[in-house]
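Let us begin with a simple case.
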Amino acid sequence: MLYVSLACRLTLVAVMALAAVSKLRSPGVFAASLEGFDFIPARLRSPLAVLVPAAELLIALVLAVPATVTAGFAIATLFCCGLTAVPVLVLARGKKVTCACFGASETPMGGWHIARNSVLLATAGLGTLVALRLGDGVPAHAPGIALAVVAAGVLTTLIVFVDDIAALFQSPVPAGDLGR
């Protein structure tokens, strides 16, 4: 279970840090993307453009510190509940809103985003449960650590590139429609 916790922890640290950096690198892109969310009051969009990447960095930091891992997982679980609710609300309202979670994107939110955020939520929830059960003092071994690192790398890649992966499963645009 130690290695499951480590894989969850590494995945969340990487995903949250990458998401925050992409938003902070182009703050206008993320702020502009929030305009499409009509369920978020206009007065809250500017503060959210700052608070969301700050929360992502905080989660990554709290999970990176061994003494605060359990709290980090709990905070990540709550945060991921909100992240999962956003594309659900967008789809329920029938809106076409692009996701700027990892930088500018042309892909409107859809089922892939719900799946991605659900995987993040499950990762945070599983990490929380394991961290609460494990406590401190469990010895780690190199092969288990290596496996956890590889698993976290694969999961992080799948999460970050969900728009690109989804595009592989979409119907190609017919050649005659390219110029329209």
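The second case is a distinct protein. As before, the sequence precedes its structure tokens.
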Amino acid sequence: MMIQELIKKENIVLKRHAKDWKEAVHISLEKLVEGGYCTDQYEQGVLKNTAEYGPYYVLTEEFALVHCNDFASVNETQMAVTTLDEAIKFSEDGYDVRILVALVAVDGDKHLDGIRAISNIFADEDKVQEIIDATEPEKVLQMFIESAEEE
């Protein structure tokens, strides 16, 4: 799938507030559930896996890739981006997180352009800061499109 099919402007939500990590997970998946890309069972899968394995999806300072392997509750592969107005921690000694990218996938390989974009963005501190500071979803969408095209 091309990145333009994987992430849509309406699934980018900026400067939301979350009181804790569970609410952050909920907020990150909200647009994907509303859009019918997955069911609310997917969120339950993420929470269950977090209880069992810890916050495996917090990958770096500022960034969590919210996902689980519950293909059955996914209707269509899609990503959503949420930024938080204040950083939260998913564990006591974990990173501060302000950017959540939710990924729901019907299989293990249709989302590779999205993974490429994520890798290129989160390897660059300036791009991470641009997303944190963004006030327009279009800006974030454009960053993902450009980053998917980078080698």
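The chain has a mean pLDDT of 93. Strands lie at 7-16, 58-60, 62-66, 78-89, 96-104.
Keep these points in mind for the review questions at the end of the chapter.
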